[in-house]
Amino acid sequence: MDEIAGDTGWRGSIDGWLEAAYDALLEGGVDAVKILPLAKRLKLSRTSFYWFFRDREELLAALIARWRDKNTGNLIRQAEAYAESIAEATLNVFDCWLDRDLFDAKFEFAIRSWALQSEEILKEVQAADNARLAALGRMFERFGHEPVAADVRARTLYLVQIGYISMQTEEDLDLRLKRIPEYVAIFTGTAPEPREMDRFLARHKAG
């Protein structure tokens, strides 16, 4: 603590440290998220870190919380959003796949890669998967699907997207938008109405 007390310069902010940790995780995996390299990245002293976090483990926990709140939280909110039909409800979920502010695919990939070397993080990922699938299942049930059918449709929708992320698929936006009505029809058994697609496309087409 004496060393910390002697650090009277600019220490950054908790958000700055967390953003630097996020960038390091995406660039180099969890092994790149270390205090000294982060301090160098931020051009701050190493001791500045301890004004905001007790240790590296607390920083890593904050990264997990950020991922959980953003990716899982937003996916569940989109699944619960108002929709006229199951097709439109599915399009609400698809907002996540096209809007990084709602769902960060690169962050998702980094966390899932981390889970390959950490039993604790694997449990976090499995809990997130279960919560997301449950929300998607409830979405299908809301529009009349029986529980087993709702669960299978939820898994089909979700696991296709996780496959996109795991394979690091790069897809031209126009091509992906063109494919979306077919995906909706396959996942739900119902093609989206033109007005539903118009509303969806208005959210994602460049102005």
Helix coverage percent: over 70%
Total beta strands: 0
Radius of gyration: 20 Å
Distance between the termini: 53 Å
The fraction of residues assigned to DSSP E strands is under 5%
Number of helices: 10
Assign the structural class, choosing from mainly alpha, mainly beta, alpha/beta, alpha+beta, or little secondary structure.
mainly alpha
User: How are helices and strands ordered from N to C?
Assistant: HHHHHHHHHH
Overall geometry: elongated
Average of per-residue pLDDT values: 93
Biggest sheet details: none
Low-confidence parts: 1-8
List key phrases describing it.
single chain, 207 residues, 10 helices
Q: What order do the helices and strands come in, and which of them pair?
A:
Layout: H1 2-5, H2 14-28, H3 35-42, H4 56-80, H5 86-98, H6 105-115, H7 119-142, H8 147-166, H9 173-188, H10 194-204
Give an account of the 3D structure.
With 207 residues, this protein is an all-alpha fold. Helix content is 71%, strand content 0%. The longest helix has 25 residues. The N terminus is likely disordered. It contains 10 helices and no strands.
